[in-house]
């Protein structure tokens, strides 16, 4: 099962699938889950991880929203989608920077996922008409 297949079945898409946008949607959804998991793990750490928790949860919400907007193909709202993808890039970069400050494996994984998601969102922006 793939999100690309689901999107391609939409009557307004009819095979004209934006592969980069579909990839960004999938990565943003995964990034949201990674950030949520990292925030939860940060809560269990003995040290004060409040800023990392906040940054991860903000990023998780923004990524989830970006993934939702990216798979909606009825009508067009390119300006809003572009703005959301740009916000997703900013949130991912901020989260990667914050997680990069900590020597926890969950933070390292989260930072890597955030960097990958930001790159996919950049590619999706470049592919949009």
UniProtKB/TrEMBL annotation:
Any Pfam family the entry gives: Csp
Superkingdom of this protein's organism: Bacteria
Stored CDD domains: DUF326 (cd08026)
Protein name as annotated: Four-helix bundle copper-binding protein
